[in-house]
Amino acid sequence: MAPITYLSFVMAFVVVPVAILAGVLAVSRRFRPAQLFGTGLLAGVALVYTVPWDGQLIRIGVWEYGSTLLGQLGVVPYEELLFILTQTVLTGLWTTLVDVPDGRGSVTRRQRLVGVLAGGLVGVIGLAVLLVPSGTYLGAILVWAAPVLALQWGFGWPILVRARRTVTLAIALPTAYLWAADRLAIELGLWTFSPDRTTGLALLGLPVEEALFFLVTNAFLVQGLVLLGWVVERDALPAVTDVIDTTVERVE
Question: What is the pTM of this model?
């Protein structure tokens, strides 16, 4: 039996589910142009924002790969680039399936400030964790996540709270699935982690850093799409109201 490679793993555990979700959306006619555009946009942003960070962690030995690789962009495997893109699409399609955009609600300046400060606090905690060598991976995730969380929470955390059931469902399922897939990849030896750069804490064999990574990245994607849906619907509401008012006036 041929050994499982990083590429075959991504194809089987991410690309195939993406194809299935795309089929479900097509059959159910749930495709929404704004969220699909948002998913594509987030995929590009994910690559630009993640690859330099990913590459730096590889350079300092936080993790290494135990399978044959197709090639590398710098030190980042091509398979890793595919994983980043397909995870974004996977979570984006799932969010499109479960989310119903709602343009109601508003955000005050004070609320925006609170959101930015909360995201900044995540970064401060990350910097503190980085002071300990074994906190390298954990601290790096928190510092890397802080600017995105500050931006999203500052833009509209009350909207995310208002849509908390949708946000929770949209984040929870792909995160749990990717936790299981990542746990299997570790078991198969597709990648290993430095004991000196990680805490050694694990949840059912899954390093807490990996669990946090998938939780945070899926939160980025879901929050971004929910906020995009809110903006689109919010801007559309006045136009719809005008049409209704005009129709009522003509009837009268």
Answer: 0.89
